[in-house]
Specification:
The protein is an alpha/beta fold and 253 residues long. β2, α2 and β3 form a beta-alpha-beta unit. The chain has a single domain, classed as TIM Barrel, CATH 3.20.20.70. The protein has an eight-stranded parallel beta barrel, surrounded by five helices. It contains twelve helices and eight strands.
Length: 253
């Protein structure tokens, strides 16, 4: 089953508007020739979204939000609605990132509400899942992944699930310089695809893209992308510098 790879850059809480526009403009220039065999996305801070969308106009690079509320509007101080994100020009949104789960206490139920809200307004959700170091050492990796995928997609119909992207990010590899081995990453991705097949069907599971995240760098992207169930990357620190992210975008197998 052919799945178009997605290289996604999560800028987290970095870059001023000016810095974000400068990076986006450089990325746009490097990708204007077209990227027929892959997709590229960046997720800037909310304050920079509209400016980055403008800087990327005419390029194939998409823009995502870093989180989203499930409601169109209302008394939700500090949140941002899917309508607002779409109006600013985004097409995707990152949900359930480990920093949202472990720093801000977002649980599976809340993440599922956010995911359903994104789908209701035609934003492509990137659902992040992954185990902590303690969970891996206790042999609970697969239990954690099954729970997070199953609860994250609870009450999501197959026709909508087909639009979801999964991102496997072992928490112990995010920002630590440690990367899951190719075998560890492939094993987790294959397991997640099996969970999707059980929830829906194999044909649908084979269509859903599963990205790897966790200290992705120019020197490991090629080997990661060579694995059969790794369909792209969710990149953190290396997405903040043009040279490193450009190399990751233009990975070679």
């Amino acid at each position: 089953m052919e799945r178009k790879p997605l290289i996604a850059g999560n800028w987290k809480m970095h870059l001023s508007i000016e810095e974000a526009v400068q990076l986006a403009s450089s990325l746009a220039d490097c990708c204007r020739g077209g990227l027929d065999d892959r997709e590229v996305m960046v997720a800037p801070p909310y304050t920079s979204v509209a400016a980055v969308v403008k800087a990327l106009k005419g390029s194939p690079i998409q823009v995502a939000g870093q989180n989203v509320c499930w409601e169109k509007e209302g008394a939700f101080t500090g949140e941002i609605s899917p309508v607002m994100l779409k109006e600013a020009g985004t097409t995707m949104v990152i949900l359930g990132h480990s920093e949202r789960r472990h720093i801000f206490g977002e649980g599976d139920e809340l993440i599922n509400r956010r995911l359903q809200g994104a789908l209701a307004f035609d934003l492509t959700p990137i659902l992040c899942v992954g185990e902590t170091l303690d969970e891996r050492e206790q042999g609970a990796t697969f239990d954690v992944l099954e729970r997070q995928v199953t609860k994250g997609l609870q009450n999501v119909a197959a026709i909508d699930a087909a639009e979801v992207v999964i991102a496997y990010e072992p928490v112990w590899a995010i920002g630590t310089g440690k990367t899951a081995s190719n075998d560890q990453a492939q094993e987790a991705h294959k397991f997640i695809r099996g969970v999707l097949a059980a929830l829906y069907e194999k044909t649908l599971a084979d269509k859903i893209r599963i990205l790897y995240g966790g200290s992705v760098k120019p020197d490991n992207i090629d080997s990661l992308m060579a694995e059969p169930d790794i369909d792209g990357a969710l990149v953190g620190g290396a997405a903040l510098k043009f040279e490193s992210f450009d190399r990751i975008i233009h990975y070679k197998i």
